[in-house]
Amino acid sequence: MSEPVFVDVSAPPREGTPVVIPPAVPAITFGGRDAYPDDVAGRLRTDADAIVARYPQARSALLPLLHLVQSEDGFITRAGIEFCAARLGLTAAETAAVATFYSMFRRTPTGQYVVGVCTNTLCAVMGGDEILATVREHLDIEPGETTADGRITLEHLECNAACDFAPVVMVNWEFFDNQTPDSTVDLVEDLQAGVEVTPARGTGPVPTFRQTSRILAGVPVSDHDDGAGS
Ligand code: FES
Predict the structure, then answer these.
(1) Which of 79, 81, 159 is nearest to 116 (CA)?
(2) Is any atom of ligand 1 closer than 6 Å to the C-beta of 168?
(3) pLDDT score for 229
């Protein structure tokens, strides 16, 4: 019978070793308005009722409801968090936890078009880093910022599983494949000039950010949505 082998996996604590307490992580907060006016709340309740009715349990409707409230202000506000929580019987903390997990939900005012440049490995080596640098310089904004005219918010994106078409740029999550710095500058210039742009896949012009949010919520793009994203 072989002898047992003992492996020492950790050093014993040494007396006098100072305990290092990591710095506190800043709390994630939501800005914007605290509550909706009655007319807006009423309109959102009608849309929310239609969404919630599609699910056997109300809380399953949280993701489309977050898109719905995002369509109202162009980002998730405190009012949006409270609205979703109240409608679904969740706490604000539970709702905020979901809203902060997914990068599609934004916490700051957003332009009419979110232009995302993929800078993950394949896109980066195929030119994504160069595209992002060129567009940053052209628009004179950093990722996460919005142009002064409110038209474009620039972001760098993680891989969108479209590596075959690298480097990839997205506008409101619609794909623009095989981009170059020049083609992306043409794209953002068209968006700023109000020229309709058509994605590489799918049909029709790319909707505004708020219109896209309503589509993702599964409700019609309504008359009140003027397409302004901020
Ligand atoms: S690395 Fe850009 S889509 Fe995959």
Answers:
(1) 159
(2) yes
(3) 44
